[in-house]
Design a protein that fits this description.
The complex is a heterodimer of chains A (about 230) and B (about 80). Chain A is mainly alpha-helical. Chain A contains eight helices and no strands. Classes of the chains: A mainly alpha (about 230), B mainly alpha (about 80). Chains A and B meet through helix 6 and helix 8 of A and helix 3 of B.
Chain lengths: ~230, ~80
């Protein structure tokens, strides 16, 4: 009985979604603001990657909220896990030579790739969140491969706070030198070069450092407890 | 092109159904990671590489790892 009801509900929800989406043409720019971003985005913000210009420049305040949500989630996870009493220190078997050497060889390359992704966020696909996630997956590799290695909690918290603080400070500087919070007070430069797009690369570097250390801290918290 | 996309969507559906049927939770996590990975390929084919990178790094790698760590702490098989 329960199964029949749930299947019926599923069919109703699927019908509703497909009927409401069927009328929207696929891949056609519909809204005026979307067309504005596509046509004027490169000229107004100097970022060759339009997605980045929307995420960091036009909707920069939303991105600050997003980063805050991630920060609160990481803090909450740490708070929940720190209340567990009776921690048992797990005996760690050392990984084999091939595995640990491979991890040590790959880890700096992954770090460099993640850094490349968030430094070039305004030129190529990717950005702070993607680069930070890549860096965190590098730390995950280290935790799985070289099991005795640990990042220092203090350093991870410090870099995380530094990234978040620099984001807010850049926003406040926009208030001082520009017209509004997170306004672009640096010169736009020529598009498609590394030093262009004003504050966008600076903010994306801050976000990349913050997200990377945050996700690495989450993984560290979880592995420490299990 | 349409053949490749249909194959990917079919695989994605298989992964999603498998994730809801399996009793072994490790297999469930692998099936869910497969869904994420194919979603990221589809994002790339739909010319949204930014979303594809985030989905591949977070959906396929980090989420699966966090779930596996949680499963190691709890029970592996669903009753």
């Amino acid at each position: 009985m329960r199964k029949i009801v749930s299947i019926l509900l599923l069919v109703i929800v699927a019908l509703g979604i497909s009927l409401s989406l069927a009328k929207i043409p696929f891949g056609v720019p519909k809204t005026k603001v979307g067309r504005h971003y596509i046509n004027e985005g490169v000229k107004e913000t100097g970022a060759a990657n339009i997605v980045t210009s929307v995420v960091v420049s036009y909707r920069g305040f939303d991105t600050l909220g997003e980063v805050t949500v991630l920060f609160i989630a990481s803090i909450g996870l740490g708070a929940v896990l720190s209340t567990i009493v009776g921690k048992t220190v797990r005996k760690i078997e050392p990984a084999s030579l091939v595995l640990s050497t491979g991890c040590r060889l790959l880890f700096p390359l992954i770090l460099i790739f993640g850094t490349y992704v968030f430094i070039h966020g305004h030129l190529t696909p990717g950005g702070g969140f993607q680069g930070g996630a890549i860096i965190a997956s590098g730390f995950l590799l280290i935790y799985l491969g070289c099991r005795e290695r640990r990042i220092s909690q203090k350093a991870s918290k410090l870099t995380e706070s530094l990234g978040g603080l620099s984001f807010v400070i850049i926003g406040l500087l926009g208030l001082v030198f520009g017209s509004h919070f997170l306004s672009n007070f640096l010169p736009n430069g020529t598009a498609n070069t590394l030093f262009s797009a004003g504050i966008i690369p600076v903010i994306y570097i801050a976000i990349g450092i913050k997200v990377g250390s945050e996700l690495a801290g989450i993984i560290d918290n979880l592995i420490e407890e299990s | 092109m349409i053949f490749v996309v249909s194959l990917l969507v079919f695989l994605m559906l298989v992964g999603a159904v498998a994730a809801s049927i399996f009793r072994d939770l490790i297999s469930v996590v692998i099936a869910a990671a497969l869904v994420s990975l194919i979603a990221s390929i589809l994002f790339y084919l739909l010319q949204a590489p930014d979303v594809a990178m985030a989905e591949a790094a977070i959906g396929a790698a980090l989420t699966a790892a966090i779930f596996i760590i949680a499963i190691r702490r709890t029970k592996r098989y669903e009753e």
